[in-house]
Predict the structure of Tryptophan synthase beta chain.
Amino acid sequence: MAPKEWYNILPDLPEPVPPMRKPDGSVVKPEELEVLFAKEVVRQEFSQDRWIPIPEEVRNTYLEIGRPTPLIRAKRLEEYLKTPAKIYFKYEGVTPTGSHKVNTALAQAYYHSKEGTERLTTETGAGQWGSALSLATALFDIALRVYMVRISYEQKPYRRIVMETYGAEVVPSPSPYTQVGKKFLEQDPNHPGSLGIAIAEAIEDAVTHENTKYSLGSVLNHVILHQTVIGLEAKKQMEALGEYPDVVIGCVGGGSNYAGLAYPFVYDRLKGGKEVRFVAAEPKSVPSMSKGEYRYDFGDSAGLTPMLKMHTLGHDFVPPKIHAGGLRYHGVAPTLSILINHGIVEPVTYSQEEIFEAGRIFAKTEGIIPAPESDHAVKAAIEEALKAKEEGEERVILFNLSGHGLLDLKGYDDFLHGRLGSHL
Ligand SMILES: *Cc1c(COP(=O)(O)O)cnc(C)c1O
């Protein structure tokens, strides 16, 4: 069941991904990205090879952390909804850090260790990406400094403790370790920080230190192709049950967990003419897929990364503080943006109230408390199952449960006690 290759969608897209550009319009050369990223991931970023071998060392760590993750049929949820549809979910919450993010963290850490990188930097908001990279760098013996948005550092200590337990150095951002950080601290010694500032600090740190590079957890093509291990496993697991999905569902922040599950099935539709639908869920208050413009924009809110052509709300968009922290991103992966433009992926949006209600139903029927991000996928799966009931049609639904919510219980608490705020 464990795949030996990742799937790269670049050669199969209905149109090529527009090149990355600098603010002056010039095209970014791959070599220029090597200042920040591992050479091999830069090669993968632009590769036109459909299948990319998973190095044995990475594959072994996938097995060690519990891959293949389970494919589970949500029978009690089906019964609760009285739907003729079959609902399957791929459960990424069983990894040690509780989400899919470790799939790319392990690959990136491996390539860095092979290329002699001694230290990595990254940013983290609520801490999911930081936790995954902390584990991966521990396994591949690389030092890591995580710039964690100060307000999260202070208010959400648990993921910081996870990262520190794995041996990462976690500093609240803005920090005194970078010029950018110092500038913000001078303005306000208690600055709450932002993801944009944390990114700027992590990048500055990487480019000003010997043997130090930077690692990103979503949006870019190399990240997405590492995540296809989810969909490739799911396809085999469904095959073993004699099933094939009619609809593939997931939640989208930058797009990596959804693309990871969906792209191997998108391949079947694009190349094999399979009739399969794709539904991607996002928060009503951060509608980058459904309301974002398709244009060039920075990948980060600080305006430091190259510009990508994607659906974007603008890199200066300030997302409301919804509990699904991983979905508070202004853009969408360029490959996913193209699939949306071609009507292959259908975006849907839900409010916080709706997604937590879906999460509560899922917890009561299936026993797993999903991450608030994943609740968006649960909600979309429930909607599809109810549509199947209305239409009196059997239907096979597959969705990605990208993570568990055991470190995000504050959101459930606010939902259960009517404190979510109605506008979100
Ligand atoms: C980070 C995260 C997401 C959103 O990121 P994508 O790149 O869109 O997958 C979704 N679910 C969980 C559990 C996350 O940690």
Remarks:
- Residues 99, 101, 128, 218, 251-257, 326-327, 371, 373-374, 402-403 surround pyridoxal-5'-phosphate (CB under 6 Å).
- The first strand starts at residue 5 and ends at 7.
